Amino acid sequence: MLKNKIISAIITIIIGIFIIPLFIQYTYHLSYGVYGTAFTAPAMLIAIVVSILLEKYSKNKNPFLMYIKHLICTLIFALLYSLFNLDLFKDTFYLTFSIGSIYITIFVIIDYLLKNFRN
Q: What letter does residue 101 receive in the DSSP assignment?
């Protein structure tokens, strides 16, 4: 289980390098994705821990319900992160939640595919 989560996180970060620049500037620069990874990679460590806890303690293993639980955790994380930037709360919350929901969607899909194809 942990190995699948780590592989999913690494693939998500690699894909995220190409997604982050879409949110940063009017022009697409891959360097923004590389710089953005410095902020999103530690968040993926939190996603791995939360995902393991959700999978371990959830009674209902429905993939869609697990995805909704991951999105709720992303919402909570975005709110907590945005509280540190109260002067820019609206912009920070929008950016963190949108990138976080994209990341967690990719993470859950890859984790689900790895889990079903490896067994």
A: H
Handedness of CA 79, 112, 103, 98 (dihedral sign): negative
User: Is the per-residue pLDDT at 101 higher than 70?
Assistant: yes
The 10 Å Cβ neighbour count of residue 34 is 12
Euclidean distance between CA atoms 85 and 6, whole angstroms: 30
CB neighbour list of residue 17: distance below 8 Å, 6 or more residues apart: 30, 33, 34, 36, 37
What is the rounded distance in angstroms from the CA atom of residue 53 to the CA atom of residue 50? 5
Asked if 27 and 42 touch (Cβ cutoff 8 Å), the reply is no
- At 22-49, the pLDDT tens digits run 777 677 777 777 877 887 888 888 888 9
Q: What is the pTM of this model?
A: 0.84
